[in-house]
Each structure stands twice: as C-alpha cells, then as structure tokens.
Fold:
Amino acid sequence: MTGLDLASLRPRLPSPLREIEDDRWSRHGVRLLLKRDDLIHPDLVGNKWRKLAPNLAAAAGRPLLTFGGAYSNHLRATAAAGRLLGLPTVGVVRGDELADRPLNPSLARCVSDGMRLHFVDRSTYRRKGEPPALGEILRSAGAEDAYVVPEGGSNTLAVRGCRALGEELRDRAEVVAVACGTGGTFAGLAAGLGAGQRALGIPVLKGGFLTADIRGLQEAAFGEPRGDWSLDDRFHFGGYARTTPELDAFAKDFEDRHGVAVERLYVAKLLYGLVTLAGEGAFPPGARVAAVITGAPFAD
Structure:
C-alpha cells in the first residue's frame, strides 16, 4: 500500500464481546451480548474502520472523495482517516442550500480534519451513481484524480471487509443484530456468520428498500446472496437522524444501567428494537443475541 500504514493506527481487533445483565432481556430467557466495535479506534469508530480500511488500501495514497448528508458519520470518519494518514479528502454534501449557512458541528469537524467540502443540489446528488453525473461532480469539485468511496462507504471492498465481523462472532451467538444505513456492514456480517446463526438488521431509514440493496451488495462482493438474514423495518423512529423523547429516554436509561454510551441515530434504535422483539417472543429461550455497537455518540 503506497505510503500508508494502517497498522500504525493500532486498531483493536477483534473488538471485545461481553455479556450484560438486563432484566428486560433476561426475563424472556434472552442473553444479550454487546459486540463493542465502537472500541476499535477512537477516530475511525466501529463499522467505519471495517468499511474504510480496505478502501484506503485500494486508494494507495490518492485523494479520497466521498458523499454524505449534513450529519454523516461516514464523512467524519473519512475526514479523520485523511488527517491520520495524510491524505487529501473531499466530502460531497447533499444540499447546495447548505453552502451559505454556518457549518453544523458535524461538518465543522470534517473541515477541522482537513476535508474540503463540496455542496451539490439534491437532484444531482440523487444521480451520483450515474457515470455522467459522477463525472460532473468530480470536475466541479476539482477532484478528477480522486478515489471515490460511495455514500456510507458501502461498496464491494467494504462488504468483504465487514465479513470479518461475522467471522469474529462465529459460534458466539445464535442471533447477531446490527442497525443498518446503506446495508454494507450488514451484507458483510451476514456473509461471515456460521451455520445455524442468523443476522438481524434494524434499518434506520424509512422506505423498505434495503432488502434489494443488500442482496445486490452480496452478489457484487461474493457472487451470490450469503447467510441467513432478515430485516425489521419498524424501528426507524421517523427516519435517518430522527429520534423521539421516548428513544432518548430509553438510551439514557441503558447508559445509566450499563455505563455504555449509546449513539442515538443507530445504536439506540437497534437496542430498542431488540427489547421489543424479546418481549414479542422473537428469540427462543436461552438464545444469545449479540448487538453490534457500531458507533459512539458524536461530541461537538
């Protein structure tokens, strides 16, 4: 890998797995385990390490260009990777109306880490996967030589990278659950699990489109769908970057009980979903359910 040494960043792999005691699960005979991917690296947190590392290797020192909304965890992680490894980064942000507004804390962090932001209108952003639109974005951003990472970091390399997450959990739980955004982490996780294990995805966006996307990601990465997996679309709480007082209270209670900081946009929805499913009898008595903690709360 030209000029880059990811090992020098000292990721904590495999990430820790520990069982917690919580009566909201145990009274239904369910054992809850936390897969602490949030402890892999302080700046490239959780699934962001697993998805970005193979893409950083493929970039081989070229500038990175990627995409996200105004509160994108992926943009922040890419900017942090650029700072740590000395790589130029460009973040294409959805919504050209944001260009003349003060930066929110998330985008300000990206800039402080050296990322150059390029705002595009929402129509162009929706077409970013089409070669003509992508070419125009690269030209207008002055980044025609950049290595392009898709929104959320979910491409073939990322899916293959996330397969290691499933492999780390083989024989450790009957069900492995993770919150889903673009589906790349889940696609790889499901492929890495062993026989008799099931992957459960909790989408944080509305729309019910992820099933086809995950199948497509697995086919691109492995040539065919892999693993025993399913999605439950009930716990998005209104969509991406949206929460409710009920969800916030649940997350705060979990933090107080277990001393684990709960990221609200993904992890809180995952844990809330698992409480609900346990109460519905979705898991057989004695089942070990591993919840993947994919991120940590963002500190302004």
DSSP finds eleven helices and ten strands in the chain. The first helix runs from residue 23 to 26. The chain has a mean pLDDT of 95.
